[in-house]
Write a structure and sequence with these properties.
Blueprint: H1 5-16, H2 26-43, E1 46-54, E2 62-64, E3 71-78, E4 91-94, E5 97-100, E6 111-118, H3 131-153, H4 165-196
Helix pairs in contact: 1-2, 1-3, 2-3, 3-4
Length: about 200
């Protein structure tokens, strides 16, 4: 079964020991899953390449990048796209406009490759999360859910399985500690991959 909000929610209820909606509704858990995914996006976003962009006609340096869905940041721009080593260009981004900072005018209609990062998305029946991030998201969401419930239940009479607000507080803290350690490890892995990956020589303007 593909990763989805429904799948992650089921995993989260197992980790929380809460198979029913007595403490958390589906909407509550979905909100905590979204929170964890946003944290993931800060350190391990999707790495994308747009290969369908072209220099405008008449020729210009500005490209419309509004079609780059869920874009976080543009990392590199390759023009022209043929030849080795890859030729990367200086660029600026303002809103949905990418400007190539070249001394000579690019060729109208020529393809441009844009390397960018994008946010992971999780829908009810689908998701862009790779398998290795699923458990990390669930740990983070469990931490947020447990802390929220602990704050709500303090000084209230609650009915349930006998677990106290203090136990949920401890669970939440433990889960978020593990989650932050996982995020740190992901960030280090990504930086290490960049350092050991192929080095591109950036062209002069």
């Amino acid at each position: 079964m593909p990763t989805s909000t429904m799948v992650l929610r089921t995993m989260l209820r197992v980790d929380l020991g809460e198979p029913t909606a007595d403490r958390w509704t589906d909407d509550d858990l979905d909100r905590h899953i979204e929170h964890a995914v946003r944290d993931i996006n800060r350190v391990a976003p999707r790495e994308m390449v747009a290969t369908d962009l072209t220099i405008p006609d008449p020729a210009g340096r500005e490209l419309d990048i509004s079609t780059l869905t869920d874009r976080i940041a543009v990392v590199a721009v390759q023009y022209p796209v043929d030849g080795q080593p890859r030729r990367l260009r200086h660029f600026e981004v303002w809103g949905d406009t990418l400007t190539l900072l070249t001394d000579t005018m690019p060729l109208a209609g020529a393809p441009v490759y844009v390397y960018y990062t994008a946010a992971h998305t999780v829908e009810e029946d689908d998701s862009t999360l790779p398998t290795h991030l699923e458990d990390i998201v669930v740990v983070g969401a469990a931490g947020y859910a447990a802390l929220e419930y602990a704050a709500y239940a303090m000084n209230r009479v609650t009915v349930g399985d006998g677990r106290t607000p203090e136990q949920f507080l401890a669970l939440g803290r433990d889960c978020l500690m593990q989650f932050r350690q996982d995020l740190t490890a992901l960030k280090r892995e990504r930086l290490r991959a960049i350092r050991t990956g192929e080095l591109w020589t950036e062209d002069a303007r």
